[in-house]
Amino acid sequence: MPDLMLELFSEEIPARMQQRASEDLRKLVTNELVEAGLTYEGARGFATPRRLALTVHGLTARSADTREERKGPKVGAPQKALDGFMRAAGLDSIAAAQIQSDPKKGEFYVAVIEKPGRPAQDIIAAIMPSIIRNFPWPKSMRWGARSTQPDALRWVRPLRSILCTFGPEAEDTEIVAFEVDGIASGDRTFGHRFMAPAAIRIRRFDDYTDKLNAAKVVLDGSRREEIILQEAKNLAFSQTLDLVEDAALLHEVAGLVEWPVVLMGTFDERFLALPDEVIQLTIRVNQKCFVLRDPKTGALTNRFILVSNLLASDGGRQITAGNEKVVRARLSDAMFFWDTDLKTPLQNRVEKLGNIIFHEMLGTQLERVARIKALASELAPIVGADREEAGRAADLCKADLVTEMVGEFPELQGLMGRYYASAQGESDAVAAACQDHYRPQGPGDTVPSDPVSVCVALADKLDTLAGFWLIDEKPTGSKDPYALRRAALGVIRLILDGDFSVSLAPVIRQAGLRQSGGSDAGATAIADDLLSFLHDRLKVYLRDQGRRHDLIDAVLGEGADDLRLVARRVEALGAFLESDDGVALLAGSKRAANILRAEEKKERKSFTGAVSANLLQLDAEKTLAKAVENAVVQARTAVEAQDFAAAMTALSQLRTPVDAFFDEVMVNDDDAAIRENRLNLLNRIREATLTVADFSKIEG
Known about the structure:
Layout: E1 2-10, H1 15-35, E2 42-47, E3 51-57, E4 66-74, H2 79-89, E5 98-102, E6 106-115, H3 120-133, E7 159-168, E8 174-175, E9 179-180, E10 183-186, E11 188-190, E12 199-201, H4 205-214, H5 221-238, E13 242-243, H6 247-254, E14 261-266, H7 276-287, E15 290-293, E16 300-308, H8 317-342, E17 357-359, E18 363-364, H9 365-383, H10 387-396, H11 404-408, H12 415-423, H13 428-436, H14 451-470, H15 484-497, H16 504-516, H17 520-544, H18 549-555, H19 563-577, H20 580-603, H21 619-640, H22 644-652, H23 655-664, H24 672-690
Parallel strand pairs: 7-10
Antiparallel strand pairs: 1-3, 1-7, 2-3, 4-6, 5-6, 7-8, 9-10, 11-12, 13-15, 14-16, 15-16, 17-18
Helix pairs in contact: 1-3, 5-6, 7-8, 9-10, 9-14, 9-16, 10-13, 10-14, 12-13, 13-14, 14-15, 14-16, 14-17, 15-17, 16-17, 18-19, 19-22, 20-23, 20-24, 21-22, 21-23, 21-24
């Protein structure tokens, strides 16, 4: 079957747009082909810094003929109905329609619409101009003499040529002829901008990749990544060094070159006095280069890896020297920032946070620091942190925002706070909290374990949540501009990973009081709504951890504000329900609940009265009554002690007496008093299980 080969060749395609663009091209073309009645076996898109390419394999040579019968109005219908039918069916006159009979409905018109298939070349030529003109670039431009025309082509950078061929495998192909803004499609492309700029004639995808490779262009981006990574590792190994791998940088660099050439540069050893992260970020951001590490010490070295797009005649010496010059200048700037920042203690920078607006309705970073400090002071004894250290860490946690280094590299906020805090003699706990209070920043980020870091991290996130709840800037649908879901997940992970229990409702209420200016009603409303939001995020988190959704609902009551205890209850309940006792008790409790529900609906009353020992007639109900009372006491005591395994053990004692009760006792006794007493006993079973969870919400 024939193949389609397409290339859109331009001056430049930014690296950040290449992957999305190649996928967009594949989807747009194949969707249109299928819509036009063609089928294909496979399609794959490619991108380099100068071209978008697409190959579609096994494309049918022609779309199929189609025949459609469209039913119309009855014979003798009003002319208006006939006119509408003819317009919809594309008929010139009603005489072109057929007349069919139905024994019940009589005679009616039918239009037979036959459409012959079209050659694939014609379909491709018809769809491509629109796809190119309407290509979804995030940013595009017009150029040349026609740029002032309203219908001028827009492209990410000037589009220079279009290659489009079609034909069977192993045979000669044909050019699919079309034109876009004066650019006619053809069968030619161009090699590397400098090393092989001449035009190349292409027939199909196989010779396209081979000829491009000969012209110093590696088409496949993943292959360029493999080349860069392997050659960088080999070059580092030759100098007994290790490459510090960076997947995001590797992907970006592979999008900057068509023919990757890996080289090694050096910088002055004096710059190694800078923190490793500063060196790596400076070289990464400014020169897109990789850093190297000493495998023995783990420390960075004064070598770096650069990737050129040119196989230079001098072996890359001038290219390397140019990169070294820029790296030296940028590291000099970083060293100046570092030295300047160290001259002013973090404490002396705190007041400058008053110049940074956190949010126009939530005040400055200085005001926020005051709230975080107050909240951290309340949380410190709960999480086991030293109150003074927690307060000191809260004081300094945002101070690095006004340093020269963070001003240049915002990505280093927190990290530089830790370095500067350590340099000025703060304790390890305070210094660590300056960095770790931002964590965890996502599901894959680490959770701090030091109590001071945990304390300030919780205070920071709870203040953020309470503030945005106060101004009604909650997440809606897929929109979450302030990353509040991430902050809530951070609160949950900090609590579940920590060795402490905290009742969140009063803590949130205090945070709300500070945000609302002392309005208790406003703070309570914030606490209730925010706790509900945290419950929703906890459900998502626990489900992602493999916990059953029905068990979470069974445990997560309206007032459950200790999320760690909720998680422990879910775990204990899950283990209990995997046992024979758990399965049997669940079945018995559901049977009791169903009977109660039916009787309560019938008599419009609740059976919540005390169980009268005098009305217990049979041994089975006497045994159950005693077992229930014992189980309730033991389960409540265990829950208060946060021993949920013991609470489940207490409930398990009900299995045998519950089974015996339903085997030997008729609940609906003829004696009304005995019947009501037995229904009250069933309610006590329900109350016993509620000490641990709402069994009615458990499936099964």
